[in-house]
Amino acid sequence: MSIKISNGSTLPLYQRDVLGTGYEQATLNFPDDYEGQVTATLIRKKAAQATNKAVLYIHGFIDYFFQTEMAEQFNQHGFDFYALDLRKYGRSILPHQKYYNVREIAEYDAEITEALNIIAAEGHDAVLLSGHSTGGLTTTLYAAHHPDHPLIKALWVNSPFYDFNMNPIKKKLGLPNLSRVGKICPDLKIPSNLNKWYTPSLHKNFHGEWYFNLDWKPPSYPLVRLSFVRAIFEAQKEIHQGVTLNVPALVMHSHQTKNPKKWHKYAQTSDVILDVKHIDKYAKKIKGDVTLSEIKNGLHDLVLSEKSVRENVYQQLFEWLELKGL
């Protein structure tokens, strides 16, 4: 069930989320796409005191929302916390869908817009838009494409996917061709070349300190669809040309990138997915009030780093938000 609100969206009726006490989820429905029925999932955790401020968090590729410490940090600092599991990810996957299947990053605009409408209807007038990795790319473009959005007051991105981490020659010659083929054969798969130690560096069952659903965030993902490669490649073109933001942005990334072939401490003190030099390079091309922050020993998902590292992330984040009046 849902209740109509003035902007034409619906105010959802929440149910208990898999994360337990305090976490609620609601299903958002959208028009069918090339695979059929489409849903996304809005998760929320409200602060102890009523607030007009909220954060909307968008996860990365091969991911979903499970970072409860981040939600609780925002609650403690006076924000209601919201996150989306995008279509075909995590809580939102439907039996007829292929995991993570997307043809354009703009497909996600529908659920971001709907989530923001709901957040406004639930009494908020100031939102920090936030994203990790692919979610960082998506939210940067969303903020750029909606410069006058009445709710979005700032952007925080955590290791945004502003460029592919690959051999420069292959990137220059191969990616345009893969993108062209991906338009014709979107379901064709190629090797992902993702570092195999990333998820094992995080999960309690391997070398990490976190528990999450390994069906929704699997330990390995050897093949990737060309549709995804094309979607990212086309979206990154905008970033590389330099987008304009009307709200202040904080871009965070690790201090180093490593690509360990066997288990090594680098897997827990580095970004093993993206090249942090690319993040820095293209963040500097964004026009507007942009702050860059390099996090010593940060992982690709900075909020899953070792305790002292993520404490530094939160300290810098909330000091920056206070500085920006949010």
Provide a count of the helices. 8
Mean pLDDT: 95
Spatial gap, N to C terminus: 33 Å
CATH A-level architecture: 3-Layer(aba) Sandwich
- Element pattern in H and E: EEEEEEHEHEHEHEHEHEHEH
Q: Give the CATH topology.
A: Rossmann fold
CATH superfamily: Alpha/Beta hydrolase fold, catalytic domain
Rounded to the nearest angstrom, the radius of gyration is 19 Å
User: Got a strand count?
Assistant: 13
Helix content: 25-40%
**CATH class categorisation:** Alpha Beta
What form results from the Cα inertia axes? globular
Residue share in β-strands: 15-25%
Integer count of domains = 1
The secondary-structure class comes to alpha/beta
In terms of per-residue confidence, which ranges show pLDDT below 50 for 5 or more consecutive residues?
Answer: 1-6
> What's the main sheet like?
9 strands, mixed
Strand order of the largest sheet: 3-4-5-7-6-8-9-12-13
Describe this structure in words.
There is one protein chain. A nine-stranded mixed β-sheet has the order 3-4-5-7-6-8-9-12-13, with helices on both faces. The chain has a two-stranded antiparallel ribbon with strand order 1-2. It has one domain: 3-Layer(aba) Sandwich (Rossmann fold). By secondary structure, it is α/β, with parallel strands linked by helices. Helix content is 30%, strand content 22%. Strand 4 and strand 5 form a beta hairpin. The longest helix is centred in the middle third of the chain and has 17 residues. The radius of gyration is 19 Å and the shape is globular. The chain contains eight helices and 13 strands.
